[in-house]
Amino acid sequence: MKSVLAIFLAACTTLFYQTGYAAKPVLGVAEFKNEATGTYWWKRGVGRELASMLSNELANTDEFRVVERKKLESVLREQDLAADGRIKAGTGAKIGMVTGAEYLVLGTVTAFESSTASTGGGISISGISIGGKKKEAYIAVDVRVVNSTTGELDFVRSVEARAKGGGLSLGLFKGGFGGKLASEKRTPAGKAIRAVIVEIADYLACAMVEQGGCMAEYNAKEKKRRKKLKSTISLD
Question: What is the per-residue pLDDT across 55-67, written as a single tens digit (0 to 9) for each?
Fold first, then answer.
């Protein structure tokens, strides 16, 4: 009996590691901060919404295990109920089983620009928009990944995104936003926000897990970004 159990446990362990589940980095995403002045869509609670959006995108890459930090309080309350004996023995949540984050992802909105040029009227019917204005939005986010054991910054990157809209462009937009950002889901600002979140998730998947050849693309993007930035300033 013992040998059968040992074989079963060994097979489960092998499967656990072969699937890569054990090797996936465990991430927690902190509430985003805002250092960009004049960011009209930034309201109370938006920082949490952006963190939630990034958590979803990171989970969707299937490269990470993502810890829901904002749900932790509810989990701890459930564990306390079990520990106090108010839940049937053997059915409550076990203390000491909460997965800790190996890395904490910090995001700061450092720049945001939005411009609108009128070119006539526009209408929107049942989520289908026909725009009559030329719009453009730009957003920059500084991303830092902190090692929760050492406290060191293991990964740092500035990520930018632009989105345009204008003329008599026909577009169908569905989902992607809720809460305070719901009104932005059809705007260039909303598209830029979504694009920068996806770019952050893809970059972290490359830098922290895939590595290798995919980093050439991101290194080229970073070189181009820095070159463009230098071209806009004058140094004595």
Answer: 999 999 999 999 8
Q: Which residues contact 81 (CB under 8 A, 6 or more apart)?
A: 87, 92, 93
Q: Are 120 and 156 in contact (CB under 8 A)?
A: no
The SS3 call for residue 170 is strand
Beta bridge partners, 104, equal 28, 146
What the block records as the tokens of 20 is: 């890569």
CA-based torsion, 101, 213, 154, 51: positive or negative: negative
Q: What is the pTM for the complete model shown?
A: 0.69
Let me know: does 194 contact 176? Beta carbons within 8 Å. yes
Terminal Cα-to-Cα distance of the chain (whole angstroms)? 80
55, containing H or E segment: helix 46-60
The full set of domains in the chain, from first to last, is 27-73+104-231 (3.40.50)
